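Q: Is it fine to ask for two folds in a single conversation?
A: Yes, each is treated on its own. Send the first.
Q: Here.
A: Result:
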Amino acid sequence: MKRSARNPVTSRPALLGAVVMLALTSASVAAADDGRGPLGVTVTAPADARTARVGALFGADGSGRPDRGHFCTASVVHSPAHDLLVTAAHCITHVDGKLFFAPGYRDGRAPYGMWPVGEWVLPEGWTADKDEDSDVAFAHVGEVDGRRVEDVVGGNRFATGTVAGAGAVTLFGLPDARDTPVMCTDRPVARGLTQQRVHCPGFSGGTSGSPWLNGSGQVVGVLGGHQRGGSTADVSYSVVLGRAAAALYRTATGS
């Protein structure tokens, strides 16, 4: 599962940046549908509007300040209150205490600040029995200097009802062995009716919760689900975002 190195028993093997970049020589070179480059190749993500909305989750130290090591990935999604994140439900299963979100995290810096994570919104299927088909969660974040996170970095639309394989998706994630985000574009395929998978090398521990964005910049998947995201760094999973995910979003936004 793609959890953090802080939980080594359940983590994927951590891959160093050099190993991630080796994927350039071995992955498919088919053209991506949205023109962003070849399929199945993982590279360092540029600092732009897309990656500003994706960030790392941090725990708190004994004084209540952000811990040094990050774990899991989350991203800002549009909401009426402009304060909502989406990630994988399994990212918070063993987390106690205060959390922080650092959008656009890169090179050990949080260019848009550290945002305190508040209320989590989890599906009943996850809270009842850790159902892998319910591995999606939302969280509200507090204001920083009187500003809301979506007003600072923007937010992607959370889109449900998309058929797996209808188009290529781009994954953005923060492996816990790196301080720079990675990205990869490929076409997902269905795994039964409730899960989808994609081949993107180098999405190791820490990338759980990574958004899958379609060509319109909508979140159509969240890295998690089967095997809590996958048992190897080369194949990643997401719950198919259907009616249950839509209902969870409505609960999170009060709409």
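Q: Second one now.
A: Result:
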Amino acid sequence: MTSPQPHPDHDRGLEFDLSTLLSRRRSFGLLFGAGTAAALAACTPGSGGGGASPSSSSGAAATATESTTAAVTPSATSTVTRALAECGVEIPEETVGPYPGDGSNGPNVLEASGVVRKDISSSFSSSTTKATGVPLTFTLTLMDNANGCSPLAGAAVYVWHCDQNGKYSLYDSGLKNENYLRGVQEADSNGQVTFTSIYPGAYSGRWPHIHFEVFESMSNTSAAGQVLAVSQIALTEAACKDVYASEGYESSARNFAKSTLADDNVFGDDGGIYQLATMSGSVQGGYTAALNVTV
């Protein structure tokens, strides 16, 4: 297959994207005791907080079906408060897997202009194909364990996951010219990044998950030795059962029926206790997911 001609800005890379962002220094100014409470009280709820609820499709009410949390989406302040309470155990280090797209085994989406974005559902540069599936918004709250669990503001997070059929852009047959379901963001003053996407599918041998890498800053996402953490988000059983019973996820339903969290080769050693997302939502209205990440 002949590859499409790249967009003129395609090879200008992440550095080109960064030139459009305001320069920000990393901030670790969150104090403890009364200072912590005051700082948290002053926080302005960010976009999404614990994951902003996606819009309902066809006007259907977003009835919560997840059992892990209430359907009310938490604010950024409450999410950071919870992250502080849970901080102390660093996120388990995991493999990037065979489809990272970070240059470690072939394709490097981190060099492509357009990778810095919140909505990762579409490809960018040479293609604008949009992945289909149940809407998913997910938020990571990054905490710096070495600095008293203060929010890791200014860090960069690269996320990627499979499509509703369990296939990965840049790698799988028919998707090598696509780069959807991949993106980078800078953590805000609360240490948070929020992405909008579609619910990942399930493929043979793995529990449904989302990959992520945490870098020290936006300016070194492609620099060797600057990765602070490599891990994965585990999605909840209740949400997976509901999503995979919906149209378009037929192959995922078959694969998921053969999977258990305890037997997964990544999450099975501890049941994913530090990587299992807090989730709420519905197939009709979309899902939200949130995870606290201590690095």
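Q: Anything structural to flag on that second result?
A: Two points. Residues 1-74 have pLDDT under 50 and may be disordered. Residues 102 and 108 are 4 Å apart (CA to CA).
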